[in-house]
Design brief:
- There is one protein chain.
- The chain is an alpha/beta fold.
- The chain folds into two domains: 43-199, serine acetyltransferase, domain 1; 207-306, UDP N-Acetylglucosamine Acyltransferase, domain 1 (3 Solenoid), CATH 2.160.10.10.
- The protein has helices at residues 3-21, 24-34, 52-66, 81-110, 118-131, 133-150, 157-163, 165-181, 187-199, 248-253, 318-326; strands spanning 202-203, 208-209, 214-215, 222-223, 228-229, 234-235, 240-242, 262-263, 268-269, 274-276, 281-282, 287-288, 293-294, 303-304.
- Strands 1-4-7-10-13 form a five-stranded parallel β-sheet. A five-stranded parallel β-sheet has the order 3-6-9-12-14.
- Helix 4 (81-110) packs across helix 5, helix 6 packs antiparallel against helix 8 and helix 8 (165-181) runs antiparallel to helix 9.
- The longest helix is centred in the N-terminal third of the chain and has 30 residues, at 81-110.
- The chain is globular.
């Protein structure tokens, strides 16, 4: 292709591209118009809302405080430990207090509430959270030991901290639950949904979970908002601690009532078991087998398993069929 033909083709391409680009202003006008409709959702206004990216960054900062030395590229030792904690905690305070302030302000404006001094409340909430971090470290240490004691594949505590999705989800849950307990709006749910997207473990920050909690494998686990879990409980993948299916009217009336089960101390629930209902209680030291469906309470010290299925064993016919296909007359050379 000579230069003249190439130039002509390029000019034709540019004309076509420009024709497509000229459609953009009309599309923009239509998008702007949708923001005036009540059936669409947007946040067009003067007040900023919390940033999901900033909240995820807060989780990373919190993990660096909760597990010092694990999630940083620099060495932490006795010489620089005070500096390390001072720097990390200060940065966490500034980031968390700002996002909490934005969440409270957004909640107040959206619900037409009187001024509640959101900036002061944001700093107070951040300080209250930081005060609880030593206790939170102790609680997570019990979760790590429960994971090690409950999983013979674990080769050490470091492996669990670095790589276990169950601990990752539980760590974020415990951070979010503390903020939820403090009455911080929106942020706790963003946190646990971030963990959900990374691990497949869906834990509502409102759930109450005791000490030494272990989720093995984890993918598909669901723990509803009003679930209560005791101490030394172990769950496997696919377990659902959920609510019974409700109509729209029932859903509204039960919004602030207990809808999810209670799991007492030392219970083990195996893979893909489903436990539903706010009045359902799984008694202490019980074992719930895989794939069971429970909507009624179980007494303490009870084992619940599905009846053994009938398995059919038959001899493989592949070799005989292959021989007949190769020698249809039945004679071999």
């Amino acid at each position: 292709m000579d230069d003249n033909v190439r130039n002509t083709q390029c000019k034709a391409d540019l004309t076509t591209i420009q024709r497509f680009r000229e459609e953009i202003p009309a599309i923009v006008d239509q998008l702007v118009y949708t923001c005036t409709r009540k059936d669409c959702f947007d946040h067009i206004g003067p007040e900023p809302i919390p940033s999901r990216e900033a909240i995820i960054d807060i989780l990373h900062r919190a993990r660096r405080v909760l597990y010092p030395g694990y999630f940083v590229q620099t060495q932490v030792d006795q010489v620089n430990m005070n500096y390390y904690f001072g720097q990390e905690v200060t940065a966490l305070f500034e980031a968390l207090s700002h996002q909490v302030m934005l969440a409270i302000r957004h909640d107040c404006i959206r619900n037409n509430q009187p001024c509640t001094h959101c900036e002061e409340r944001g700093q107070q909430a951040a300080v209250d959270f930081l005060r609880d971090m030593p206790q939170l470290r102790g609680l997570l240490a019990m979760d790590i030991r429960a994971a090690y004691e409950g999983d013979p594949a674990a080769r050490g505590f470091d492996e669990i901290i670095f790589s276990y999705p169950g601990l990752f989800a539980v760590t974020i849950y415990r951070i979010a639950h503390q903020l939820h307990h403090q009455g911080v709006p929106m942020i706790p749910r963003i946190m646990t949904e971030f963990a959900h997207s990374h691990t497949g473990i869906d834990m509502h920050p409102g759930a109450q979970i005791g000490e030494s909690f272990f989720i093995d494998h984890g993918t598909g686990v669901v723990i509803g908002e009003t679930t209560v879990i005791g101490n030394h409980v172990r769950l496997y993948q696919g377990v659902t601690l959920g609510a019974l299916s409700l109509s729209r009217e029932e859903c509204e009336s039960l919004r602030n009532r207990k809808r999810h089960p209670t799991i007492e101390d030392d219970v083990i629930i195996y893979a893909n078991a489903t436990v539903l209902g706010g009045e359902t209680v799984i008694g202490a030291r019980s074992v719930i087998g895989g794939n069971v469906w429970i909507t009624h309470s179980v007494p303490p010290d009870t084992e619940v398993f599905l009846k053994k299925q009938d398995l059919v064993f038959g001899e493989k016919q592949f070799k005989e069929q292959a021989t007949k296909k190769r020698f249809p007359s039945g004679k071999k050379d």
